[in-house]
Amino acid sequence: MPPFLPPFNNIVNPLHLPIKTLKPVIFFHSSPPLFTNPNQQLPLPSPSRIHKLIASQSDPLVAKEIFDLASNTHPRFRHSYASFHTLILKLARSRHFPLMNSLLSRLKSDRRYTVAPSLFTHIIRIYGDADLPEKALKTFYTILEFNMKPLTKQLNVILEILVSQRRYLRPAFDLFKSAHRYDVSPNVESYNILMRGFCSNDDLSIAHHLFDEMLKRDVVPNVESYRILMQGLCRKSQVNKAVEFLDDMLNKGFVPDSLIYTTLLNSLCRKKKLREAYKVLCRMKVKGCDPDIVHYNTVILGFCRENRAHDGCKVVEDMESNGCLPNLVSYRTIVGGLCSQGLYDEARTYLDIMLSKGFSLHASVWHVLINGLCNVGRVDEACSVLECMLKSGEVPHLCTWMDVASRICEVEFERLEEVLKVEIEPCTRIVEAGVDLQEYLIKKGRTNAKFKSRKEKV
């Protein structure tokens, strides 16, 4: 310390707290006296100013020292509740839980303070974020020690934390069942949290029991309640039961949301109940939920997987009439489905539609059509599609080149030259096929009469 400065504990701060250590606490005042007599009795600081000073500290340990300094220096000084609240949360968020608990004990011992319920809600959430579910559960019972009634919101926060880990699902259920002892009434969110937890754990029977109990206790389920149970049923392939819940929703005046329909349509298609899936899709708009691209594409894929591409085409037509434009996935699924059934002319029509609408086709879409045409001996059309692909700037896969080259060499070698008249960019993957293609052509040339006659002319 420079010799021209007095001892540090004689420096006065505006709150008249003698600072005994060189901690990073800085006090500001317009024009305070620099020195004072250490024996002079200091005036009592303002609780509101102490609170502001604590709240302004980014370091929770410095804030704690200010808190303690004010208490220890002035025995008659009483902190405001705001100071307790702010400091407890600062310590909790920085994971200084022992210090936080000591302040909570101090707050509990002084009955003059009225504790805000939000304090415990924040502490429970902080314990959850710190992955300390047992501490969060203990906080619920700490609320009772303050002669306070826990809130339903606090119950729900704890349940959410507990059910997020499978091993705490049973303690969560026990807390839920005992909530009435503490005059806490579970609401629809409480039931939804537990139903979601049990469905995720494949305990559908308990989830269904909770749903029924909700109705018995005059707790009105909401759309989320139905969605949780229907998703659980669909995951267990109980799609018929899920459809019954959909009907129950509609009969009770609920409007199912988009996610409910997505789950149900996907499950119906996977169970090959395509007629039912299409009926659900058709009545969506009537029941207040407009089908979106995901709903339509789900049903299109279901039809194409079962070799019913024409029905998939009908769904595409329905989309356009209902104001939902097909996207690249819609058309790609249709082209693949038509090709798998050997309907190459219709597949080519949809491919042309895609190009006319400005879609950038993936190489796999071209390949499935080219490969299909080659397999049925329609080499000219396969080459035409390949030429169209090159002109559109798309890069064929190596296997696409090999399919076309092999068929051309077997049928008419002259056609290969017509294909290769298209300008090929350096990125075109025929370069990758070069070695294999050369070996293949040489091999074919030795056995192909047309190739030999062409070679003799050259």
Automatic annotation (TrEMBL):
UniProt xrefs under Pfam families: PPR_1 (PF12854), PPR_2 (PF13041)
InterPro entries linked to this entry: PPR_rpt, TPR-like_helical_dom_sf
Top-level taxon of origin: Eukaryota
Entry's family note: Belongs to the PPR family. P subfamily.
Name of the molecule in the record: Pentatricopeptide repeat-containing protein
UniProt keywords, alphabetically: Repeat
Record-linked PANTHER family: PENTATRICOPEPTIDE REPEAT-CONTAINING PROTEIN 3, MITOCHONDRIAL
PPR repeat residues: 187-221, 222-256, 257-291, 292-326, 327-361, 362-396
